[in-house]
Design a protein that fits this description.
alpha/beta, 7 helices, about 180 residues, 5-stranded parallel β-sheet
Length: about 180
């Protein structure tokens, strides 16, 4: 049984996430990383696929010798919040407690009788996934905010280019709608 589940979308997995994971590992010994919204990708708020998020995290854990203490799984969203914890339990190996700062996630786990603990924010003003995606969309300044293997993975696969294109497409569509240029 794993000590804890660490739940997040990890779009992308950044240094704040990694610091939180290490903090949880110090307390629990082993962690299941639950990649939420596993079915979503190719949108500005969820640009990376589950497989891409899995691989970027796995590569960093391998580089740092942590794979023997961490499992990585994908968990899809549910349209019914009351069934989501059951999905997490279905997709994940057994764990004792969960870690999250998301109010809905905390509520759902507590209602299911599973202990939930908050995670300290590690330089939240600096390490915040929305901001990192915006920096990617702007063309730079994001690489130092993610672990080195994650940065290499994103660059080598040109996923930062995808993020720029997704943001540009969204802005163009919003502009066309605002300008009345769409039927």
């Amino acid at each position: 049984m794993f000590g804890a589940a660490y739940i997040g979308r990890f779009q992308p997995f950044h240094k704040g996430h990694y610091s939180a994971l290490k903090w949880i590992l110090e307390r629990e010994g082993s962690v299941v990383i639950c990649i939420g919204s596993a079915q979503h990708s190719h949108r500005p708020e969820n640009p990376f696929t589950f497989a891409e998020r899995y691989e970027m995290i796995w590569l960093q854990l391998r580089a740092d010798g942590l794979l023997d203490r961490v499992a990585i799984v994908g968990v899809p969203d549910s349209d019914m919040h009351s069934t989501w914890v059951a999905l997490v339990l279905h997709y994940c190996p057994p764990f004792k407690t969960a870690y999250s700062n998301d109010p809905l996630t905390v509520r759902l786990f507590r209602e299911a009788g599973i202990p939930v603990h908050p995670i300290p924010f590690f330089s939240r003003d600096r390490y915040e996934a929305t901001r990192i995606r915006q920096l990617m969309a702007a063309g730079g300044g994001w690489e130092e905010l993610v672990p080195p293997m994650v940065a290499s993975y994103i660059r080598e696969r040109r996923l930062d280019v995808r993020v720029r294109q997704l943001f540009r497409n969204k802005r163009e569509l919003e502009s066309e709608i605002a300008g009345g240029r769409l039927p």
